[in-house]
Write a structure and sequence with these properties.
The structure is a single chain. The chain has two domains: about 350 residues, Beta-lactamase (3-Layer(aba) Sandwich); about 80 residues, Lipocalin (Beta Barrel). It is built from ten helices and 21 strands. It has an eight-stranded antiparallel beta barrel with strand order 14-15-16-17-18-19-20-21. A six-stranded antiparallel β-sheet has the order 2-1-13-12-11-10, with helices on both faces. A hairpin with a 4-residue loop joins strand 12 and strand 13.
């Protein structure tokens, strides 16, 4: 069971257990979200549908913060959904297969012969992350161009320079490159743009009014910005949506997302045969789907992360239950919120989270500052401060604020991490996933 782990680029694969009930304690779920908002632990929006009917939807926090001017989010606020986009792309690929314009065995070489192993890589392998194509967003150079518009030619030139990570089909590794290319292939086959095909093949077809291919965030169109929290919410830089494309460029509301996945499982978008292709797991990867176990139930869906937004979309076929959650401000883990919401929905034991941080002065943090390393973990962690907030940053990763919980203990609830410092020995113990690592300050 995974309730405290955060996966930024990979899907979250486990939640809590429960049993299905058609009625649930909605005020208790309200209280959970109000508590998160009151303690500035999360901002976002959630929707739950039972047999295609919305039974709960609520937004909390703000879609935009501009100094003292704060715009409250509502259930129609749109958020960047990141890799949930891949499910939409896969649906359109399967629609083209059903129209006889493509097959699962078609090779990438038909469209992009210049790419590594193009003659060996099939559409099926791209859909299930078995292609071996290198994940372009994992390269350090990606940060240098992520905010700038890129054409198909420019992106494929980047992909062509990247060596394959492994031979196609021998294993699976998550790669956004697969779905950017699948988005381009949709355009090549149809002669229309991805946004046009998305509208024609999915959103108009099933009546989604708050789902579309994103551009620069437009707050006047009720689109949310994303925020990090360091002594308050600060806006996160935006990726230009020409870059993630079919891998992560869609903007949507949670309500539209549950309608989408309901329609998918109801056979309104692709055949049941192709839905089974999406659901079939190999090396824990389906075709734009992953499994989300909930006790004896099996859910299917995807999670997403882009520019500080985190999202989850899950469908439980046995109960015809769907849930979508999108956050644009995260301190408390999004998978924890979905797990808590499902526990409330299924009337399972549930403890309301408590947030009891300790207030420290800037000078109190000085004894913790420095660069730390561990013989058991191949990275260093830099401990710095921003006014009265301690900041932790691991090698090659973003910086995150650490909350003081007393007795030299600090936590990052977002990732289920806790640090306990020993200022005499100039070290700290790092706790995560039941594992403990000793870090010592460099001299």
């Amino acid at each position: 069971m995974i309730r405290k782990l955060l996966f930024i680029l990979l899907p979250i694969l486990a939640l809590l257990s429960g049993c299905h009930k058609h009625s649930f304690n909605k005020p208790r779920l309200d209280t959970l979200l109000v508590t998160l908002n009151a303690h500035e632990q999360n901002m976002g929006s959630i929707a739950i549908a039972d047999n295609g009917t919305i039974v709960y939807q609520k937004a909390f926090g703000y879609s935009r913060i501009n100094g003292t001017i704060k715009t409250p989010a509502n259930v129609h606020t749109k958020y960047r959904v990141g890799s949930i986009t891949k499910m939409f792309t896969a649906v359109m690929i399967f629609q083209l297969i059903e129209e006889g314009k493509l097959t699962l065995t078609t090779t990438l070489a038909k469209y992009y012969p210049q790419l590594p192993n193009a003659g060996k890589i099939t559409i099926a392998q791209m859909l299930s992350h078995h292609s071996g194509l290198h994940n372009f967003t994992a390269d350090s150079g990606y940060l240098n161009y992520m905010g700038k518009p890129k054409s198909e030619a420019e992106m494929t030139a980047i992909f062509a320079k990247q060596k394959a990570d492994f031979e196609p089909g021998i294993k699976a590794a998550y790669s956004n490159t697969n779905f950017v290319l699948l988005g381009y292939i949709i355009e090549k086959i149809t002669g229309k743009s991805y946004p046009e095909e998305l509208k024609e093949r999915i959103t108009t077809k099933i009546g989604l009014e708050d789902t579309y291919y994103g551009t620069k965030t437009d707050s006047l169109n009720d689109e949310a910005y994303s925020y990090n929290y360091i002594s308050g919410w600060s806006q996160v830089p935006e990726t230009d949506m020409s870059i993630p494309g079919g891998a992560g460029a869609i903007v949507a509301s949670p309500t539209d997302l549950v309608h989408f996945i309901d329609a998918l499982f109801a056979g309104k978008l692709i055949s049941n045969t192709n839905l089974e292709h999406m659901k079939l797991m190999k090396d824990n990867f389906g075709m734009a789907m992953f499994i989300f176990p909930f006790d004896d139930k099996t859910g299917y869906g995807h999670s997403g992360g882009i520019d500080g937004f985190l999202s989850q979309l899950i469908y439980y076929p046995a109960d015809k239950l769907s849930v979508a959650y999108i956050a644009n401000g995260i301190r408390y883990p999004t998978n924890e919120i979905v797990a808590d919401a499902l526990s409330i929905y299924y009337n399972k034991p549930f403890a309301m989270p408590e947030f009891k941080s300790v207030e420290l002065k800037s000078a109190d943090l000085d004894k913790y500052l420095g660069n730390y390393s561990s013989v058991k973990m191949p990275l260093k962690i830099a401990i710095t401060k921003n006014k009265t907030t301690l900041i932790g940053q691991a090698t090659g990763q973003s910086a995150y604020p650490l909350e003081a919980r007393g007795n030299d203990k600090f936590v990052l609830d977002l990732a289920g991490v806790s640090l306990r410092f020993d200022t005499v020995k100039h070290s700290f113990y790092y706790f995560q996933n039941g594992e403990t690592y000793l870090f010592t300050r460099d001299k």
